[in-house]
Write a structure and sequence with these properties.
Length: 99
């Protein structure tokens, strides 16, 4: 099973809208974008796990497919953790602001 390569960060995360949506629109939003990105990370991890199982049982045709999938899953997880850390840092900065 071949996993398509992630060619840029834009394929790992949904692209940002180019225009500002109207306030009355219920077209997703930041929460939906985060949920889709986390779902993408989860599916990348699941694909890497499947290939790891296939490699461990000897059913893998190409070991490099597993290595690519494992690296993609690792990078997606690192990106998710970095974004989370920045969000928590921003929240803490806002909470420290004096009114």
């Amino acid at each position: 099973m071949a996993i398509p390569p992630i060619t840029s960060v834009g394929t790992a995360l949904p692209s940002l809208p180019t225009t500002k949506p109207a306030a009355t629109e219920s077209a997703g939003g930041f929460g939906d974008m985060v949920a889709r990105a986390l779902q993408n990370v989860q599916s990348t991890q699941a694909a890497a796990d499947q290939l790891a199982t296939a490699a461990a049982t000897g059913n893998a045709t190409d070991v490099h497919d597993y290595m690519i999938a494992a690296t993609q899953a690792n990078l997606a997880t690192e990106l998710t953790v970095a974004v989370r850390n920045k969000a928590v840092e921003a929240f803490n900065d806002i909470m420290r602001m004096q009114i």
